[in-house]
């Protein structure tokens, strides 16, 4: 319990530091949001009035504290471009990004875990060779390129899935899910390639441990020793790598959502950056950072579930 409390305190402190860094970086981005909205031909008094309305005439620390106070109260501000609350924009886009990333994580684990375990169970076999080839290709090819190949090879040629766009969940669960399958596959393949290598290496390492040989000496079959003793102990590095891959997955979602024209958080961040909608960029980047931090906290808590030695030590 003390360890979890300490981790929570560290998470909150880290998010405060990240929020300040994000605000500082956004301040250094060239260009004036008010001038971008009104155009370069706007009159100086009109420009000054808009800057005052947007709060851009206030000092740096005053604007940062106002933003931080609004975050604590659940008020993320109003978008300069869309003229709507940022919380509404993020809420709408999360209905696309969260199912997309969740499906991508599920697919990457569903592919990598059995493939890595079976490859380690028979080193230098056919499955091991296929797993090695899959890992090399998956790591080498970017996810947006995989998305383009899926659009050309499956969506446009075979017509099994939509080539892009999102009909919305109000159009029905199945049409919305079909629109997310190809993007989630494009996101999942590079992550599955990395996790396959990690799983294979972890299983081979645990297989050579003394407790596994002891279980085999007591009469445990190879399959029983593999799934009962080896795989549970090999999950710790796999879970660690999965937590680290969340940030890569979020970064990949920005590109993949634009490739498939999905109205998700990645597309929102890209559009806000192009229009210099600072308040949207700040909140989206902070939200992404918070997701990564929370996932790492959950992974840290899972260690105590997967490894009883940590519970005893703590």
TrEMBL record:
This protein's GO CC annotations: plasma membrane
Keyword Phosphoprotein on entry: no
PROSITE patterns: ABC_TM1 (PS50928)
Coiled coil: none
Any Pfam family: BPD_transp_1_N
CDD domains linked: TM_PBP2
Superkingdom as given in the UniProt entry: Bacteria
Major subcellular site: membrane
SUPFAM superfamilies per UniProt: MetI-like (SSF161098)
One term of GO molecular function: dipeptide transmembrane transporter activity
Membrane topology: Multi-pass membrane protein
Protein name: Peptide/nickel transport system permease protein
Location in the cell: Cell membrane
InterPro entries referenced in this protein's UniProt entry, alphabetically: BPD_transp_1_N (IPR045621), MetI-like (IPR000515), MetI-like_sf (IPR035906)
Lineage, top ranks: Bacteria, Pseudomonadati, Pseudomonadota, Alphaproteobacteria, Hyphomicrobiales
Organism: Martelella mediterranea
Regions crossing the membrane: 7-26, 100-121, 133-161, 173-195, 234-256, 284-306
Keyword annotations from UniProtKB, A to Z: Cell membrane, Membrane, Transmembrane, Transmembrane helix, Transport
Record-stated family: Belongs to the binding-protein-dependent transport system permease family.
Domain (ABC transmembrane type-1): residue spans on this chain: 94-303
